[in-house]
Amino acid sequence: xxxxxxxxxQGDADAQANLGTMYQDGLGVxxxxxxxxxxxxxxxxxxxxxxxxxxxxxxxxxxxAEIAEAQxxxxxxxxxxxxxxxxxxxxxxxxx
Length: 96
Fold this sequence. Notes:
The protein is an all-alpha fold.
């Protein structure tokens, strides 16, 4: 997880796609569809076609508000800045 996160934070689309899957399935991290969607969206924007399909599958399980939040997080994401996602992950009051 640590190395995927470090690479994803630097803009590596493969690592971002892997994190999307990890957050969707709760593999080594708390299950969180909003965070999974965000990472999958970033990976798709970085050229990972499978991540785009993954993102669309997630969207079918999410409310409009959750999708909007994930899209907002993806727009605000900048390489090397993990503060936005880290804050979201720590807020247990937010829906998955």
